Amino acid sequence: MSPKPPPAGQGPFQRIKVNRDNCTGCRLCLQICGTDHFREINPKKAAMRIEAKFPDPGKYRPYVCTQCGKCAEACPVGAISRNERGAYIVDKEKCDNCGACVPACPFGVVFQHPDLGHVIICDFCMMCTDMCNTKAIVPWERPAGGPGEASRG
Amino acid sequence: MARGFAGTTLRIDLGTGAIRRQPTDEALFRRWHGGRGVVAKICYDEVPRDADPLGPKNVFIMNTSPMSGCLIPAGSKVEFGSVSPLTNGQGDSNMGGHLGPALKFAGYDMVIFTGISPRPVFLFIDNDTVELRDASGLWGMKSLDCEKKLKDELGEDYEIATIGPAGENGILFSCITHDFGRQAGRTGQGAVMGSKKLKAIAVRGNRSLHVHDMDGLIRHVTSIIKRTQKHPNMEPWQKYGTAFFISWSNDNAVIPTRNFQTTYYEDTNKIDGDQLVEKCLITHKACFGCWMNCGKYTKAVIPGKPEVHLEGPEYETGSLCGSNLGMKDINHVAYINWMLDNLGMDSMSGGGVIGFGMECFERGLITEKDLEGHSLRWGSVDDVEHFLDMVANRRGVGDWFAGGTKRAAEKIGRGSEKFAMQVKGQEMSGYDGRWAPGMLLSYMTADIGAHHNRSWTITVDMAEGRESVEGRAKIVVYLQHIRPLMDTWCICRLFWGELDITPEEIVETLNLITGWGVNPEECLRASEMIWNLNRCHYLERNKANGRTFDYPPARSWEDKIPSGPGKGKGVSREQVEQMLDEYYAARGWDSKGNPTRAVLEDLGLKDAADNVERLGLLGVPIPGGIPPVRGEKYKPKAF
Fold first, then answer.
1. pLDDT digits (tens, 9 = 90+) for B64-120
2. What domains are defined for chain A?
3. Which residues pair with residue B11 across a beta bridge?
4. Distance, in angstroms, between A112 CA and closest chain B CA?
5. Which one of A36, B5, B348, B449 is CB 3.0 to 4.6 Å from B424, fit for a cystine?
6. What is the number of other CB atoms lying within 10 angstroms of the CB of residue B1?
7. Helix axes B472-489, B437-445, angle to 10 degrees
8. B156: chain A residues, CB-CB within 8 Å
9. How many CB atoms lie under 10 A from the CB of residue B490?
10. A60 interaction partners in chain B (CB closer than 8 Å)
11. pTM of the full predicted structure?
12. Residue of B149, B283, B307 for testing the chain A interface, max A β-carbons within 10 Å
């Protein structure tokens, strides 16, 4: 899937807005994310997560990358850099899978998987928002550096 | 192994604690497709015909299909199967949620349990780690409480199935619960699990699944997703789930009311989908990989009782525990739903059993003396609470009802069997068949008793004529092949039924995943093979002509509907007999309801033909031969 160009008149940064009460916990986003990036079906290779809080209060909470950059700051080998759409991209050659970026992420959306020698971070391909049927996660474009930098999970 | 399979089957002898890993038998799955089909074949081959369903010789199987978890529309179902203690025939039941896919991602396609554990255990799976762990501390816990405790101890990312006190105590309509509100409810699979001292199953996995044609699969499935997102039925399904049907069923005179006495409920507007969404909804809730979120996570608030959280009531529970019990407040229906879930009883059979108890109480067949000083009145949630406690713990007359309505009627006698609303021991779903003859025939002939998932014909009856039985048999035969195929593939039926995903599209998905290259006709034949195998299994266990077991309770033909839009309507005894004759002919069975050698051998079931022949239960050859194709293709209108 090629990334979607941002709508005319908006900044170049492709974000994801979370309408958290809309999430129904179907994990279609996780399935399509892992599948599309790794050509095998594995929701545990997705670059986002869904928290399920049951029986109390009985809610789902999607967490996605907010492009805050804490992962890149924490990386000791400089393997994480921002691309023209604002996504933090992992250089799979440089990344030694040390895991320093994992706890640095405030939303817990940097992942390691035993099959892989590098970490997984959202590349904002927007396949997940394209599949979401309840608008729990939707594309959200805005200029970098503006107020409300982090979209809360 | 690639192509949709996780690769490994677990065989667990609970008696010795031995856990064996075997490569999954792809040839078995290729022939029987998975889910219900593979389960039926294993039970037929491995369970001795005289084995007690609650004894050590019954097997208990948790199964998936090659499609489970593989980006298939709602490929979320996990199938449980064993010989049913409720029907004494092959039993299976499935539920959505996340457990089936989780099992595949952990590396396993199927788990087969045999024997009985000497002490309570639960099965723990975390990828390669497979252990039977002590469950002494969990034994006695209620289903939802047990799931919460295991999640707290193991982690939120484990998918967990549990049974409640009902399953432990051998209540024959016990269910298996998962995801705080998804149930494999029918045929008493929870009782079988309890008989094996297996309290729970907890699964986590992070393995990958591989398919035959990944690019083709992504293209095919994403185009289905985009198309169905715009389907006109999507919005009501997302908003109400199946609770939408409560008022629809009432308007169309099929809603069971006060133990199926009538089909019109004057207080429907107090328990319908609007009430559910307005008063109880906490969040919409979906199964794995499903974008239709028909699940409703709700709360029940009743003054003087604790606020409780549950999933539902969906249509079946909403009708069988609502109008069928004369409930006048959606919170009361939800509270009864929660009680049944937490005790670990099927909320469909549970509603049927309570309704039967209420009518017995109304008629004086059971009294306050029998009920430890309590009543059992229409519309009383407190009466229900006490009654269920008696049933779950088999106290007093509670023990009679613990076997379901059929066995309770045998104990109570005095004509009560007329309104014990069951077939083959299993309580009816939430549709009265008196003005929907195809639905009545569906109940009569289903392999697991009066359940609607094999065939549902309300809109067929409305389109083809509700007073006439013409042509219904062939359509029911077709539906009994196409609908159970979804349970064989472990996918949700609603995408076919309500969002118009075609069988051809589903079979294409199967081929993209497995590379099997099958066509829909072959799949329907596989489903017919499963149907006939289960019929033979039933005859071999119950040792009488099939027709003997295919009659509904007498209320279904003796009583006309007394009120509402269906007032005065009803099916006659002659129509019941005519439908059975036509149904057996359409199946290639003889008039006694026994499968013939011609049809069994056509389906590759020679062994089964030999087995029933030895018991004198092989159908006599049909003059003129069997129909070359059984059943008539029909797509019922959604609603």
1. 999 999 998 789 999 999 999 999 999 999 999 999 999 999 999 999 999 999 999
2. 15-136 (3.30.70.20)
3. B20, B112
4. 11
5. B449
6. 13
7. 50
8. 51-52
9. 29
10. 283, 285
11. 0.96
12. B283
Residue with the two structure tokens 């015909």:
B49
How far, in whole angstroms, is CA A128 from its chain's centroid? 9
Which residue of chain A is at minimal alpha-carbon distance from B288?
Answer: A26
Task: Identify the structural domains of chain B with CATH numbers, from first to last.
Answer: 8-204 (3.60.9.10), 255-414 (1.10.569.10), 437-614 (1.10.599.10)
Longest dimension (CA), chain A: 44
Residues A113-139 pLDDT 10s: 999 999 999 999 999 999 999 999 999
B248, containing H or E segment: helix B245-251
Nearest to B62, CA basis, from B249, B230, B198: B198
Report the alpha-carbon angle B178-B183-B184, nearest 5: 115
Rounded to the nearest angstrom, the minimum Cα separation between A54 and chain B is 7
Q: How far is A116 from chain B (nearest CA, A)?
A: 12
A58 to B282: CB separation less than 8 angstroms, yes or no: yes
> Given a cut of 60, is residue A5 above it in pLDDT?
no
pLDDT band at B523 (very low <50, low <70, confident <90, very high): very high
DSSP B322: T
Tell me the Ramachandran region of residue B175: left when phi exceeds 0, alpha when psi lies from -120 to 50, beta otherwise.
beta
What's the pLDDT at A13? 85
DSSP states of B556-602: HHHSPP-SGGGTT----HHHHHHHHHHHHHHHTB-TTSPBBHHHHHH
Task: Give the model's pLDDT for residue A2.
Answer: 43
How many beta-carbon contacts under 8 Å exist across A and B?
A: 97
